[in-house]
Design a protein that fits this description.
The chain is α/β, with parallel strands linked by helices and about 325 residues long. About 35% of the residues lie in helices and about 25% in strands. It has eleven helices and 17 strands. The strands form three sheets. It has an eight-stranded parallel β-sheet, sandwiched between helices. Strands 1, 2, 3, 4, 5, 6 and 7 form a seven-stranded mixed β-sheet that branches. A two-stranded parallel sheet has the order 12-14. It is globular and about 60 Å long. About 50% of the residues are buried. This is Ornithine cyclodeaminase. It comes from Pseudomonas reactans. It holds the Pfam family OCD_Mu_crystall.
């Protein structure tokens, strides 16, 4: 059996941000319309050193292929001179089960689709006037969110908070060199003092955002809680929110911020709406300027399917040199 293996440079050569945003948005909508067949994600959690491995698989009803994706994150890798993320995608024929291609993306496709989803979710619930974008986290995804969301929101002002102040300083310096007006915040409360859109992207296992920090009109995109045991928000924030958007209700109720609020009895299983319905324009992301809104993201197989299909199609359509 022979099949092509496409490397990270192959993928980088054909994929653009605008395409990633488009197909990630479409994937969220397709998921909300029950057009995706997928299972709950599998995961392996590691403690020494800390890390995780996620497995997602699924297909679009009527689609030509199905996708199995592995994505890893090992958080001490940068101290060893290694990238935090790794992974690959396997693309199979949905008619024969034959392996069509391997996308050896080293975790890059997952990184970009996550960045696109975060930016889209930030826009979906953002107030009409964005004062500044706040990022809680200092890792690779924090950097991606700063770029993608700031561009989509139309603001160059970014505030960075991290549990390690030195990492926050280094990220701010990097973002400043890349054209953003970035500065550090000494505390989480300082971020919310300056920013009415805040994205959380840490591997925290306990709440780092107190409900007391959240002001009327704030929109929060919570991305870090994508595995059992992770948490970034005080569950009271979800009880306070006028709108809660989830990428997938069942996943968020099991492993997202929604899960902590449900277990605490602060909200009901009908408290959230689908992010896909908001992106499609069927439901509002906020109803007034003073609404507190939350987007809870755990990642979708639909996004992996869409991006793998896009990448494969673009590569195959590119003439060989």
């Amino acid at each position: 059996m022979t099949f092509p293996i496409y490397s990270l440079p192959d993928l980088r050569a054909v994929l653009k941000r605008s395409d990633m945003l488009r197909v990630t948005r479409d994937a969220c909508i397709q998921h909300s319309q029950n057009n995706i067949v997928s299972t709950m994600p599998g995961e392996l959690l590691f403690q020494a050193p800390p890390g995780d491995c996620h497995v997602r698989l699924g297909y679009l009803r009527g689609g030509e292929t199905f996708v199995v994706k592995l994505a890893m994150g090992f958080y001490e890798n940068p101290s060893r001179g290694l990238e935090t993320n790794n992974g690959l995608m396997l693309v199979f024929s949905s008619h024969t089960g034959k392996l069509v291609a391997i996308l050896n993306d080293e975790g890059w496709l997952t990184s970009w689709r996550t960045a696109a989803a975060g930016a889209l979710a930030a826009k979906a619930g953002a107030p009409s006037q964005v004062t500044a974008l706040g990022i809680l986290g200092t890792g690779h995804q924090a950097e991606q969110q700063a770029h993608w969301a700031a561009q989509l929101l139309g603001t160059p002002r970014v505030f960075i908070w991290g549990r390690d102040p030195n990492k926050a300083i280094r990220l701010v310096e990097k973002l400043a060199h890349q054209g953003l007006t970035a500065q550090t915040a000494a505390t989480v409360e300082d971020v919310f003092e300056h920013c009415n859109v805040v994205i959380t992207c840490t591997p925290s296992t306990q709440a780092i955002v107190p409900v007391s920090a959240v002001k009327p009109g704030t929109h929060i995109v919570a991305m870090g809680a994508d595995s059992q045991g992770k948490q970034e928000l005080d569950p009271q924030i979800l009880a306070l929110a006028q709108v809660i958007m989830t990428d997938d209700h069942q996943q968020c109720a099991e492993r997202g911020e929604l899960a902590h609020a449900l277990r605490a009895g602060l909200i009901t299983h009908t408290a959230d709406i689908s992010l896909g319905h908001v992106l499609a324009g069927n439901l509002p992301g906020r109803t007034s300027a003073d609404d507190v809104t939350v987007a809870d993201l755990t990642g979708l197989a639909a996004q992996d399917i869409a991006i793998a299909s896009l990448a494969l199609g673009l590569i195959q359509a590119t003439p060989s040199p």
